[in-house]
Design a protein that fits this description.
The chain is α/β, with parallel strands linked by helices. It has 4 domains: 242 residues, TIM Barrel (Alpha-Beta Barrel); 273 residues, TIM Barrel; 72 residues, Methionine synthase domain (Methyltransferase, Methionine Synthase (B12-binding Domains), Chain A, domain 1); 120 residues, Rossmann fold (3-Layer(aba) Sandwich), CATH 3.40.50.280. It starts with 15 loop residues before the first helix and ends with a helix. Bound molecules: CO-5-methoxybenzimidazolylcobamide (B1M).
């Protein structure tokens, strides 16, 4: 709409709110005329990363939308940068950027509307900024791909879980897909969420015609398709890319008879990580207990030394053995628990997609972790003491969590099941006062050792059964307390675990590295008919057998695959003592990256994991580089330019090529990654270079490589070597490259021959 009115290529549309307000208003007006009830402000990318006058731009935008007399949605899009650990933007920086926009736009707006969002973590920063700096309703609309994933890997259920936890007012889908492609996603979202839904698809899928983007669905068929989609039970509908006032007008008339939908509360108990949801339904959940210093000398030592690697190892190995959620307790009197909790949660959510259970009695550490956690966590714990409930429940309400409720209060732990149940009832009532549904509570009836009270297990189990059957709440137990003070504790623990599961226990906090416990769990699942063909049982047995000889060793390939950067460094430090650099690169780093690349392609792993693996590979390569003999050959004075082509940010391969060339005495001018064609030409001319090496890893960036080659040939007499996983020799010939190098060694060989022939 703005382009049609004269917005130039490369010009930022939000700047028009000040430069040409009437142009912007005329667009709003056209949509208002078409019958829209809500007008989105022209502020999608208005943030301080792009503008230094955000306040003026946003205020002007709100004023323009308000002139239509319609409801105004303060429109907020992604910041354009990924958050740590996937990118380098800090969570609190993202929060501040959003806060600025919200403060500038809240007076005058009726809704805060996050749209086209692709990362749950960024959404969380935005939603908190909105909650803490305004009282406006918060709508969040996300762009999923046709695999039903966000860019950073979350599926629809995970997005629903986190956003319902955060207490937003409506959620939905926009952009990326047309109404037909969006239909199954909308249906899925409707089946999962208890919130009102927003749907703004594109006018079909974009096509490029003569360099222009066109959308195929006209107003009438858009309206028809939207009628179908709106009947799923949607509250807000509209259009995204390619839709015009005509589309909206047709939509208004086709959907005006459809009743506004009021969803019922689904009351599902679920937690999530950044990409994955764990639902507490009929299958009991295993919570790994090992990230807890109680009774662990080595762990205590690790905490004193801030040894995050230790915590990561514990997390990864528990996941491997089948934990569904990881408990994180890093409390030690002599350390700063708040700081350690932050580091531990940040590190763990960087390497594992399992949801975490934040386990602390320190309210400050609790809030820190709840705030920066990427998902809807478990929280361990609240109890029946007034003080505990009054400090923990507000946090649960604000950030969203499933909270473990301990059946104890000011008078201690009741000896009988009845006493504990009374406390549970008190906790449920109090939670309700805070607006927390009992589906977000999970009750711990407390396992007390049988070594001092022969009836303790019976009382606990009685309480579990009652809570489950009569109060309809989920239950959890820290299982191993039951055997405190006894020999052969695992025998008692696993027997008790089995009994608790039989009494309806929803989740056990156990040691997943204990074969006895895991075998008990899987046998129970098989016996209960929860394990089709006993598949999990059998898989668990083979895992047990495989893990026993493998011990706890992690090799370089595994460390890279799992994104364990520190471990990758340690493994490389060992390997360089005995292996040649190229042997490590070709035998460990490349296969590991190929493995994650394939997982990424097949949707088994997602961008954050890919990034962590890339970071680990880079760290490993730094060690290799430092260990390579320097200047094995005399400096030849022969210059080679290296660059990853425009649009492509993959540079691991190019950096390997660079190091090898330097080791053979070449003078490498490294232009970096994502290098525009002109910059390459400029560097070739300025430095009188005769050989250029270009790298491209994606099919989409090969055209940029072709253009660069063309320009190099047209403007200079330099020759071009190309490389990168996406290329082949014949493809290289097709784009007129002079040479193709399959790997770094071949690059050196080609360079040697080329320079020899030049002389
Ligand atoms: Co991405 N990525 N990635 N990625 N990534 C690929 C390339 C992909 C094949 C994965 C997949 O889906 N299977 C796929 C491309 C699909 C395609 O087009 N066919 C892909 C995608 C889609 C993406 C994103 C779009 C994902 C997203 O955001 N949704 C995004 C792209 C962003 C962009 O570029 N605009 C993206 C991002 C990333 C990370 C940032 C997470 C990270 C890169 C980090 C970095 O490089 N700093 C990353 C990684 C690590 C990969 C994989 C897994 C590994 C690449 C790698 O480093 N390999 C990759 C899958 C794969 O290749 N298996 C994948 C190891 C490296 C040593 O090999 O680069 O081939 P290579 O280099 C070799 C030779 O090819 C040769 O020598 C090197 C050493 O032997 N060589 C040359 C290379 N360049 C040369 C130049 C020469 C000579 C020889 O000139 C003289």
């Amino acid at each position: 709409m703005l382009q049609a009115r004269g917005l130039k290529a490369g010009e930022l549309p939000e700047a028009l709110n000040l430069k040409n307000p009437e142009m912007v208003y005329s667009v709003h007006d056209a949509y208002a005329d078409a019958g829209a009830d809500i007008i989105s402000t022209n502020t999608f990318g208005a943030n301080s990363l792009k503008f230094d006058n955000v306040k003026e731009i946003v205020c002007a935008a709100v004023g323009l939308a308000k002139r239509t007399g319609k409801k105004v949605a303060l429109d907020i899009g992604p910041l354009g940068k990924l958050l740590r650990p996937s990118g380098d933007l800090l969570f609190e920086e993202a929060y501040e950027l959003y806060k600025e926009v919200i403060l500038a736009g809240k007076d005058g707006a009726d809704i805060i509307f996050f749209e086209t969002m692709t990362d749950l973590y960024e959404i969380k920063a935005g939603v908190l900024a909105a909650k803490e700096n305004s009282n406006l309703p918060i709508f969040v609309s996300m762009m999923f791909d046709s695999n039903e994933r966000l860019l950073t890997g979350a599926d629809i259920e995970t997005a629903v879980t986190m956003l319902e936890g955060l207490g937003v007012d409506a959620i939905g889908l926009n952009c990326g897909l047309g109404p037909d492609e969006m239909f199954p996603l909308a249906k899925k979202m409707r089946s999962l969420t208890s919130l009102p839904m927003i749907l703004n698809p594109n006018a079909g899928l974009p096509r490029s015609v003569d360099g222009k983007t066109v959308f195929d669905i006209d107003a009438e068929s858009f309206a028809e398709k939207m009628q179908k989609i709106a009947s799923l039970g949607v509250s807000y509908i509209g259009g995204c890319c390619g839709t015009t006032p005509k589309h909206i007008q047709a939509l208004v008339s086709s959907c005006k008879e459809i009743e506004s939908f009021v969803p019922e509360n689904k009351k599902v108990t679920r937690v999530s990580s950044y990409s994955k949801t764990v639902v507490f339904d009929e299958k009991p959940i295993i919570i790994g207990e090992r990230i807890n210093p109680t009774g662990k000398k080595l762990f205590k030592e690790a905490l004193r030394n801030k040894d995050i690697g230790y915590i990561i190892n514990e997390g990864v190995s528990q996941k491997e053995r089948g934990a569904h959620i990881l408990d994180v307790n890093v409390g030690l009197p002599e350390i700063d628990e708040n700081e350690m909790m932050y580091s531990a949660v940040e590190a763990l959510q960087g390497v594992t997609d399992l949801p975490l259970q934040i386990d602390t009695a320190d309210i400050k550490a609790m809030e820190t972790a709840l705030r920066m956690y990427n998902g809807k966590p478990m929280l361990n714990s609240v109890n029946g003491k007034e003080e505990s409930m009054n400090s923990v429940f507000p946090l649960v309400k604000k950030y969203g969590a499933v909270v473990v409720c301990l059946c104890l209060d000011e008078s201690g732990i009741p000896k009988t099941a009845e006493g504990r149940i009374k406390i549970a009832e008190k906790i449920i009532a109090k939670a309700e006062e805070y607006g927390i549904d009992k589906s977000d509570l999970i009750f711990d009836a407390l396992a007390m050792t049988i070594s001092t009270d022969s009836q303790s297990a019976n009382e606990t189990l009685k309480a579990v059964r009652y809570l489950n059957d009569n109060l309809g709440v989920k239950t959890i137990l820290g299982v191993s307390n039951i055997s405190f003070g006894l020999p052969e504790r695992e025998t008692v623990n696993s027997a008790f675990f089995n009994m608790a599961l039989s009494n309806g226990l929803s989740a056990g906090i156990i040691n997943p590295l204990s074969d006895a416990m895991m075998n008990t769990y899987h046998a129970f699942m098989a016996l209960r008919g929860l394990d089709e063909n006993c598949e999990s049982y059998i898989a668990n047995v083979s895992k047990t057998q495989a893990v026993q000889p493998a011990s706890q060793q992690v090799d370089l390939k595994t460390a890279i695959i799992k994104g364990m950067k520190q471990k990758a460094v340690e493994c490389t430090q060992e390997l360089v003592k005995t292996k040649d650099s190229l042997e490590i690169i070709n035998g460990e780093i490349m296969p590991a990256l190929d493995f994650v690349g394939e997982g990424f392609e097949k949707n088994r792993i997602f961008l954050p994991q890919l990034l962590m693996s890339a970071e680990s590979a880079k760290a490993s390569f730094e060690i290799i580089k430092a260990s390579m003999p320097k200047d094995t050959e005399e400096k030849k004075g022969e210059k080679i330019i290296l660059a990853t082509v425009h649009g492509d940010i993959h540079d691991i391969g190019k950096n390997i090529v660079k190091v090898l060339l330097e080791n053979y005495g070449y003078d490498v001018i490294d232009l970096g990654k994502d290098v525009p064609e002109e910059k390459v030409i400029e560097a070739v001319i300025d430095n009188g270079v005769k050989l250029v090496g270009l790298s491209a890893l994606m099919t989409t960036t090969v055209p940029a490589m072709e253009r660069t080659i063309e320009l190099v040939h047209k403007n200079t007499d330099a020759k071009v070597i190309v490389g990168g996983a996406v290329l082949t020799k014949s493809y290289a010939e097709m784009i007129n490259a002079d040479f193709y190098a399959a790997d770094a060694t071949e690059t050196v060989k080609i360079a040697k021959i080329y320079f020899k022939n030049l002389k």
